[in-house]
Write the structure tokens for this entry.
Amino acid sequence: MNRRIIVMIALVVVASLMPASAETLEVRGTIVELDGANPTLGYDRVWNYSSFAGFWCDLDDGLATETLTITATDYCNNPTLNFDCDDRTLDEGTLRYQTQPVFHEYELHENEADPDRTTATAMENTYLDGRIGLCVESDNAGGDCGYFLEGWMGEMYVAIDNNADKLCKLLVEFEDDDKKMLATNEGWDLGGGFSLTANHINLSSDKVWFTLKKDDKELDKEVITTAAGTRQDRVYTYVADIGNEGEIPVFSCYVDAVFRGPDSNIVQIMYVFLIDDDVLEIDVSDTYGAMEVQTASKTWVILANYETTIDLDTDTTEHIMGNMYLKTADDDNAIRFYPMVEYTEPGTYEVRGTIEELDAANPTLTINTPSGTPAYKQGYIWDYSSFAGFWYDMDDNLQTESLTILANTWVGQPTLDFSTDDRTIDEGSLVYATHPVFQEYELHANEGDPFRDNQTVMELCFSDYLEQPIGLCVESDNTGGDCGYFIEGWMGREYVAIDGNADKLCKLLLEFEGDDRKTLFTGEKWDLGSGFALELTSIADSGDAITLQLFKNDAPLDGSLKCINTDYGPQERVYTYTTDIGGEESIPVFSCYVDVVFKGDISYAQLMYVFLIDDDVLEIKTSQTHGVMEVMTASATKVVLTNDEYVIDLDTGSTEHIMDNMYFKTADDDTAIRFYPFVERTIGGEEPTPPATIPADDKDGDGVPDVWDADNSTPSDYWVNSDGIGRKWGDMNGDGELTSADALMILQAAVGKIELK
């Protein structure tokens, strides 16, 4: 291979060590932490719908089915995890996922009584205490009054005929007041390849001729009348034999009315229900990621890491199954981790907090604020652990946000009380608070300063939070520069509190981890995002000095043109751009460390520890309003907002705005006040067209169905050679990671020291 080409490949590999830019959404569960004080689990750790927002739940009916469990001990009765022994391994069989179906009443049956029947069906007696209503056709005597839902890897499915191991996607379900009008010969695209057409509507006989199709192929024809017969005769049901189950109701609707429209006859239908007719059948010994199906029956499905160990090494993300992972902190002082699901498809997602429920047995709020909290501040609190929508730094265990509903109003009455049907959060009873926390620069944490013996003022002040007492700093108006900065969660987003001010926030745009690198060629302008760009304008002939300039919106920033000399000591390798923003002076907006400079036919510099904040400051001031919340305190130390002039009504079936993209969602249930906070998160891009059917099994979660996948145990960023061996692109030593060692191997090959295979 040509050596020049090999050098170029090496540069590409080095460049690939930069953070991935693909937009993803991570939804986490509650955090587990083992350390010197609590080295083992002590008891089984179980995540369910309440402690893991990635699991499916039905708020209106209080339905949930999924659990993920780490057993406290393994089969030999040894602790599953042990910090004292540095045992970070989930041995075979210690991680278990379980799900099962739960009954859910059809909207049709719930809202439409059957006046022509006095005897309940067997299903009505079993699940609804004999309450009679209109049913959909099935092989059960009298039809079905409901169906069965099941969470599967965080998604909602229908368990056909109450079989936990036979699942179909729920494609359409109308609420009680939803209606659809179809004109004669109008085709309605139902999704999943299904369509419904009203071929003929006869007003004199009040009859409608329906045709149901899938992928333009006719599935069923039916004539429904609204004039004669019973109310039950208005229900159109298409049944099919699927998943080796007979007469499964795939589609159903209720013909509410037929009438003459402006141009043609029209039929109005309600209670539309549609499942896919492609069945996901779960069988014993099937594998999904690291999990294998141990039990697959009508009653439940259980998976375990039966033949696979899962290592919770520092700074790792370990695949469980589907889009579910275990993420571990980059911290040698603790085993800190949580389960999460990762979304990459464009769309809007709801990230919820734990669910609070008030009912006849527990009519008022449970106080869960820390002991010692003043009585007037006690109430129900959501923080980083109970609300996945709040910002949290896993590696350093940093968090700042809380949302509290005070237990009592300012006059001493319960804020919420089910016994009196008080669903109102009165003025001043909802409190959001946040504050800044110190975070060490990656530069300072990883690069010591051998030319300095004395700590800077900032190093002395925050010595307890530093990886090393003396390190390289970024320029600022503080003597000796800054060894760190201040992070603050604000409405679920991460911000930098400039100069430690809680009320002056800038977005953190870019931060390299310790081993991230960027190769910048002479004359290249690197797009940093949000209008910023960095240009390597020149490299000295001697190869020991470079000139960098920072731009915003294509205009050079004053004072950003600087020469960095790599021969004058490590601190001189640090490039910092400072500016006066938000009434604060010499704020470090951008910084980086010049690690390598190469002058030749291809001249470049390699940068590390890149850090960039926006220079547009969000200044929070007293009396500002954000949604229904008003800023009551805005200082250097904290920001506090309350609903000072607004009441928030948690009416049944309502979604109430709090501030920004944060809301309260309340169940459509008169028997309880059941609600949770949530934030909306959007992944940009064109939303994909839903597939016509459930995709074929994709056991390794790489996006390639198994029927097309040559190796269904390799992630999407792997390649598979002719021998069927999977390896990441650029992973030269086969350790499963992309590091500088891989780039070094390619560079060694370029000079003939080793041979690459």
Notes: The chain has four domains: 27-94+305-344, 98-290, 356-429+643-683, 433-618.
